[in-house]
Amino acid sequence: MKLKDFPEDLQPHLLPRPRGRMVYRCLDCGAEFGIDHLFYTCPKCQGLFLLVDLDEEQLKEHSGAFWRRLFDYRRMLHDPAVQGAFCFHELIAPVIPAEDIVYLGECHTPQVQANSRLQEEVGMTVYFKNDGQNPSASFKDRGMAAALSYLNYLIRTQNLTGVLAICASTGDTSAAAALYAAYLGDKVTSAVILPYGKVTPQQLSQPLGAGARVLEIPGVFDDCMRVVEALSEHYHVALLNSKNSWRIRGQESYAYEIAQWFDYDLAHKVIVVPIGNAGNITAVLEGLLRFHDLQIIAELPKVIGVQSQHANPVFTYYLESNPARRVFTPVVVQPSVAQAAMIGRPVSMPRVIRLAAEYTRRAGEGSFAVVEVTEQEIMDAMLLANRNGHIACTQGGESLAGLQMALKTGLVKKNEVAVVDATAHHLKFIGFQQMYFDNTFPSEFEIIPKPEYQNHPQLLIPESPPGESPWSEAEQRIFTQDMVRQVAAVLGLKPK
User: Fold this and answer.
1) What percent of the chain has pLDDT over 90?
2) Of 249, 265, 296, which residue constitutes the final position of a domain?
3) Domain range holding 494?
4) Any domain includes 272
5) For residue 192, what is the domain's CATH number?
6) Zinc among the record's keywords (predicted)?
7) CA distances in angstroms from 69 to 75, 216, 468, listed in the order given
8) Helix, strand, coil: what percent of the chain each, to 5?
9) Cα 286 to the center of its chain, rounded Å
10) Which of 99, 248, 296, 469 could in theory staple to 291 by disulfide, Cβ–Cβ 3.0 to 4.6 A?
């Protein structure tokens, strides 16, 4: 549709103009800082930031119905300035002009309803939201679209040169950061720091292919994160981990899209996400609260976070039922198939604590919870999903296993509708599937493959191998007849 074909009352709003006054607000001391500089932690107290639009109350001049119509009609525009995360421009980054927005096809990922067999197995209605169908094959592209658009805006308005974007990663962040930085060409160079031997080959290949400088160090993600945190404090670099508040803004689009999918009716809905560095669950909580503030949604859904027993600091924190007695304690992680969530010191934990408290206050007890699952349950759930037509990664398996645990413990009811998060594409973690099939998991993973989920190719050997090619017509005919007979026998086919 062309702009002139849209409803007249919406036409002035479809292509947004920059507006608002955004600041970084410290969660600890409340200090505010302008966005004309890159800040990650508060210069006064080292607390973590959330981005705040000081003029956001002005959005309430329009009704929730207006915003619903506007966001839905924007989906029909072909202007990149309102595609992807920036379909929700007023909520993501209203200060950024259209010319600075970076759009690579991210967001609006499929939300696929599970087939009847899988829903019967789980015990309720389930959807997979397949964020592996983003450009770099993970949900991290949502945040990078916002973070790199903001960086692009800073570069243009402040005539910056020689900008280095850097991140620590378990794989997906580095792939997304390198891809979006590469799109900006000579404006930005990128570097990523990875834990040696703890990133899948598929994930490692992505930042290398995008031209990033890849540095591997001994240890786990938490060690890499400490290095980039120190670099951002002492050197001029643009940090692209979820400490970057613009990342959180972009990832809010995940919650907005789920609401849009259900025509903004989130009553009796459940959103299940894995918790790694805690940026994603932060964004989901904040996005839902902001939609609720603007009356775009009338009810808040349940939000369930999931952690593996091998990396469970957030689950452990919420085991204490009395908020006044909770103490956050980082954990030493063990090897996990949910590699992207293998983080013992999530940097966004202060955000989670603040937002989860507000969410529970507004939506009631039980509206937010964290569950724990085993490595065995993660792999079994991933294969269960993919045996039923999905492309779930190990984190997607973690989400499905978490939903099953939440249902088992009564946190979720059978009459509710769940959306589980497959954060990355299945092929990024294909090595773990092969280890399951071959029963080659090291003992520390604590995984014993179920025979019904194992699968292997079967080689068929011709009884009379033909000679060197090119084969004669007779040899080809004999070979084909032999193979047809063997295939029919293996598959139990009946003659016509």
Assistant:
1) 87
2) 249
3) 458-496
4) yes
5) 3.40.50.1100
6) no
7) 10, 47, 67
8) 45, 15, 40
9) 15
10) 296
pLDDT at residue 1, as a whole number: 81
CB 198 within 8 A of CB 339: yes
Q: Which amino acid is located at 167 in the chain? A: C
Q: Domain ends where: 234, 249, 264? A: 249
Helix (H, G, I), strand (E, B) or coil at 466: coil
* Number of independent structural domains in the chain: 3
Per DSSP, the three-state class of 168 is: strand
The string of pLDDT tens digits covering residues 252-298 is 999 999 999 999 999 999 999 999 989 999 999 999 999 999 999 99
Rounded to whole angstroms, the Cα distance separating 143 from 422 reads: 16
Whether the per-residue pLDDT at 146 is higher than 90: the answer is yes
Q: Are residues 115 and 261 in the same domain?
A: yes
Are residues 363 and 407 both part of a single domain? yes
Instruction: Looking at the structure, tell me whether residues 274 and 384 fall in a common domain.
Output: yes
* Shared-domain flag, residues 196 and 335: no
Residue 275 counted as domain residue: yes
H or E element: which one contains 301?
Answer: none
Nearest C-alpha neighbor of 425 from the set 459, 390, 470: 390
pTM of the prediction? 0.94
Quick: pLDDT tens for 73-97: 999 999 989 999 999 999 999 999 9
Q: Looking at the domain assignment, is residue 223 inside a domain? A: yes
Nearest to 288 by CA among 360, 198, 188: 360
Burial profile 48-71: b = 16 or more Cβ within 10 angstroms, e = fewer = bbbbebeebeebeeeebebbbbbb
Residue 281 and residue 210 share a domain: no
- For the ranges 138-147, 218-227, 461-470, which has the lowest average pLDDT? 461-470
Q: Which of 129, 254, 240, 232 is nearest to 179 (CA)?
A: 240
Instruction: Tell me 6's DSSP state.
Output: S
Q: How many angstroms separate the Cα of 251 from the Cα of each of 16, 155, 177, 343? A: 20, 22, 14, 19
- Residue count of the chain, please give it: 496
Q: What is the mean pLDDT of residues 59-65?
A: 97
Task: Report the pLDDT value the prediction gives residue 2, as an integer from 0 to 100.
Answer: 87
Distance (Å, whole) CA 448 – CA 431:
16
β-strand partners of 305:
273, 370
Question: Residue 474 has which token pair?
Answer: 């007779």
Question: By the 8 A CB rule, do 378 and 338 touch?
Answer: yes
Residues 430 and 480 in one domain: no
SS3 of residue 478 by DSSP? helix
Q: Is 87 contained in some domain?
A: no
